[in-house]
Write a structure and sequence with these properties.
Elements lengths: L1 H6 L3 E2 L5 E2 L5 H28 L14 H18 L10 H32 L12 H24 L6 H37 L22 H23 L2
Amino acid sequence: MEGAGLLRGGGKDNHGIRHVNETTLPQRVAGGCCAACLGVAAALAYQYPQFANAGGGMDWGSKVWGYHPLFMTLAFCCFTGGALVFRFPLHWLAPRKRKAVHGLLHAGALVFGLVGLVAVWRSHGLAAGTKNGANLYSMHGWFGFATAVLALAQSASAALLFGTDLASSALKAASVGPHKAFGRSLLVFWASAIATGVVEKNGFMGICSYTVDSYDWNPAEHYDERPAVCRTGTWLGMAAFLAAVFATSALA
């Protein structure tokens, strides 16, 4: 039986693709740490716009920007979680169900990402005629655009290769390695887009620095001098980046 073969250390599905259960404790620990970071990032992504938008809250009018970090972070969480399902123990999720969950989470990531992109396009559109109306003027914009294109390419190629019978079993098997490597790289791109977005927004607000009277030898003592919105955004970026680091370790 397929499951029995997998439990003995590996097996092949009807496409000739080898499935290997998680084999090392470090990978399991990294996966758990990644999941924790994803939860923190999702919570902070909801809180950050509440602080950043004047008067708090989000809407599809003047406060539409708030939906951008929220939904792009949720997309990142879904995309990363979809990859991590292949590190679940076999008694949690059978191989075929893993594939289904993997596909559903990545489809959810595309939907969340689309909403996030619509939000930022609308936000910049409302600022047309000002320096804040452009989409690709900053490092964040370039990272974000590249991430969106790469995520779409990754999902579309996977759907064609592994979700249909258009490719031969040999091509499917040969494509697994590049698919995984590309996906791990994409996670780093995505986390970088989130982190640079926080840097950009915190810079726009112009309230995230503090004044010192001498050399700032111990920056930690000034931590509470930074407004809550700045601290929240910074931790959001850190959580996303750490999630990508742990994910690449878990999926290695």
